[in-house]
Amino acid sequence: MLHFPLFATERGPNLSLKGKGEFSAVKVQQQPTGLAPWWQGETGQLAYAKSGIEAGPQLFALQLDTNSDWSGTLHAQWHRMPTPDLGITEAWLSYQPLPIAGYRFRAKAGYFYPALSLENTDTAWSSPYSSNFSVINSWLGEELRARGVEFSLSRPGRFFHANPSWQAIAGLFQGNDPLGSIISWRGFASHPFQTNLGEQVRFANYPSIREGLLALQPAWVQPSRELDHRTGFYLGLHWTDHTATELRLYHYDNNGDPLVFRHGQYAWDTKFQSLAWQQQLSENWRLVSQYLTGSTEMGPQAVVLDYQSWFSLLHYDGGHYRLNLRYDHWQQQDLDQLPGDDNNGNGHGWNVSLQLPLSETWMVAIEWSRLNSHQANRAQWDGWPVQQNSQQLQLILNWRYD
User: Fold this and answer.
1) Are 238 and 166 in contact (CB under 8 A)?
2) CA-to-CA distance for 61 and 67, rounded, in angstroms?
3) Is the pLDDT of residue 126 over 70?
């Protein structure tokens, strides 16, 4: 890690930098062929539609540590999709005073993800297990970002001479009103992309959103927009049993007013519950799993949707190589009565990744992803199949700087 003293004193603040990125050779197979991904305005649910050489996200994490209770964090990236862009994904200030009777209090303010993922734990909210995230965390990387404040209270077990540790979390936020748009029309997807703050995410321009109750809805969403000036909230609980078991339980509610339309966007009333579990099975084997269930509503019941998804990931660390196997499953249930806009969908997917570290800086990985999905709204076009099977094989060159 690079350290830059800001002042000419040993005890002055330090600025540290981390980085991570990837380049890959991609081979794509589809049945049927020729469907472009969602970010190109069609319905593919993997990142790439054509074989070739691709530049993945290039991620950077800046950490400012001071000799006080305050610190600052900035996460930024360059990515080529959905458009070539250099932007910020997260930025926050943290306040963490000394423990009181063993209990630790922490506050943070800014733009950030709630810490509900046990998959995306690497530099700048990337995954150490694969290039393509699970469909749950792919969706969160696209549409979820809190602009707000978070407070937490933790009880470290080692201070109290006990194995279990816990942390209770509460957050208040604004600026995540369009949350729910992407999974309602496109459904879930698997990819390595995060949305920069202020960035738009495109999806297919379905005929159903060009008329009637949905006529004002564009074929894109800007997830970090504040539209209704209402405050959302989330509650979380982390529980750790020594080093073997970790659980993270969250309830997230953006408290959106589904009748508000501003800046070309509807506010959505979206809420979900998430349970993430990590189990260290042995020195070499680890299991990571997550379950998410929720609902969303937009307009005067123009879109009403329930959704569920889960994945399980098995990780093996062989020292000179790492092997990862993940299975995803998801489903959306359309509960509104709007004709011509059937958003029912379901699917499952596999991801296998073999990682071969070459040095502290470079790693080569071979990754195979497959998604089988059924999305009813694809039937709005002649020739766009409701059922789609996609496979993606990648030879990836990763770099990192810690």
Assistant:
1) yes
2) 20
3) yes
